[in-house]
Amino acid sequence: MPRVNVKERLIEHAEDVFRRKGFNAASVQDITEAAGVPKGSFYNHFASKQDLAAEIVARYARATDFSALHGEGPALDRLHRHLTGQIDRIRASGVEFGCLLGTFAGDGTTAGQRVRESVRDALDDWAGAMTRTIAEGQAAGEITADRPPAGLAVFLLDLLEGATLRAKATGDQSSVADEVSIALDALRA
């Protein structure tokens, strides 16, 4: 019989609990019950709920697929494929739960420094990946050079996160892809 990896079970189930309840409302008891492990085993693997949340954010960030940004074709098409992929990722986890990064960013002031740093690092890495693609598009003359590529990348990321947050509140994600398309059209040179 295979041995159960308690740490992995906690991480896997805690992500769902955090998505449904948010950082503040989720208790260690909620997490251990969802994982089907004794509450005491939590502290064998994590010093705090904050440490677990930071680990979940880091894993979520590492699992982000940036391959569309580095593919072939015009930069705007690559950005569109990438952002559409992220919309699909959010949709797959449940529109009502939004983006995991947005959920933790919203709880940032009370979730603690470690969680805020993990979210900030994830968002910075994401913006950095998009910045390189935007710079390529600007060099090719397809994306406006009126603004620096890093500023445009943050704009696109904020647009996606904001539209996803609104979709979380309304339960309707149908306009998120339209808003991304509008933003990308506005970046055309």
TrEMBL record:
GO terms for molecular function: DNA binding. Keywords: DNA-binding, Transcription, Transcription regulation. Residues 27-46 bind DNA. InterPro entries: Homeodomain-like_sf (IPR009057), HTH_TetR (IPR001647), Tet_transcr_reg_TetR-rel_C_sf (IPR036271), TetR_C (IPR011075). PROSITE patterns: HTH_TETR_2. Residues 4-64 form the HTH tetR-type domain. It comes from the Bacteria. It holds the Pfam family TetR_N. Coiled coil: none annotated. This is TetR family transcriptional regulator.
